[in-house]
């Protein structure tokens, strides 16, 4: 059965973007030692990607001529009208994430579902009891505010640390398992 994973980078103070969706703080770390290997190993296990409408719009604005997930089904939870890039397998949906659990798992097949973001969408999966793992790369900068990494509606049960490792430029990757699904 497909697992639901939230693979994300966060500032040391818990934000995935500034309030105005600026990622310059993160992009300055492109190419850090171990980052590409971690991403490639993660992507080898992904069969479906899920994102919110704001994340989708950001991708289309910043990469208008390139779709970063060719050959992978993508689901976008949105309240706005969007168009899909030519040749991309993109499905636009509205509604509670729980309603789409079996469809997402079916698209992932024997691989995992990556909840790309944003944090609000990932929190909806967590609040619905659907999030299996949080894989978070802590970037050694402070933003002082912005979009929280996982703004859940209530406290979670303790997460189980599965692994941690240091990578280049002071980045630390932590992998946690959520309780309740296994």
From TrEMBL:
GO terms for biological process: riboflavin biosynthetic process. Pfam families: RibD_C. The lineage of its organism: Bacteria, Bacillati, Actinomycetota, Actinomycetes, Micrococcales. One of its GO terms (molecular function) is 5-amino-6-(5-phosphoribosylamino)uracil reductase activity. Residues 74-172 form the Bacterial bifunctional deaminase-reductase C-terminal domain. Gene3D superfamilies: Dihydrofolate Reductase, subunit A. This is Dihydrofolate reductase. It comes from the Bacteria.
């Amino acid at each position: 059965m497909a697992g639901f994973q939230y693979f994300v980078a966060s500032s040391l103070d818990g934000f995935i973007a500034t309030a105005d969706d600026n990622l310059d703080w993160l992009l300055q770390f492109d190419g850090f030692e171990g980052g590409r290997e971690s991403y490639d190993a993660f992507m080898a296990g992904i069969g479906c990607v899920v994102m919110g409408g704001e994340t989708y719009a950001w991708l289309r604005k910043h990469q208008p001529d390139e779709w970063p997930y060719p050959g992978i089904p993508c689901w976008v939870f949105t309240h706005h009208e969007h168009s899909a890039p030519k040749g991309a397998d993109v499905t636009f949906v509205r509604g509670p994430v729980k309603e789409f659990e079996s469809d997402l798992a079916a698209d992932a097949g024997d691989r995992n579902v990556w909840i790309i973001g944003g944090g609000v969408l990932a929190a909806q999966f967590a609040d619905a009891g659907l999030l299996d793992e949080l894989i978070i790369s802590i970037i050694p900068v402070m933003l002082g505010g912005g979009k929280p990494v996982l703004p859940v509606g209530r406290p979670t049960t303790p997460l189980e640390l599965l692994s941690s490792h240091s990578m280049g430029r002071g980045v630390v990757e932590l992998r946690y398992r959520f309780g309740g699904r296994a």
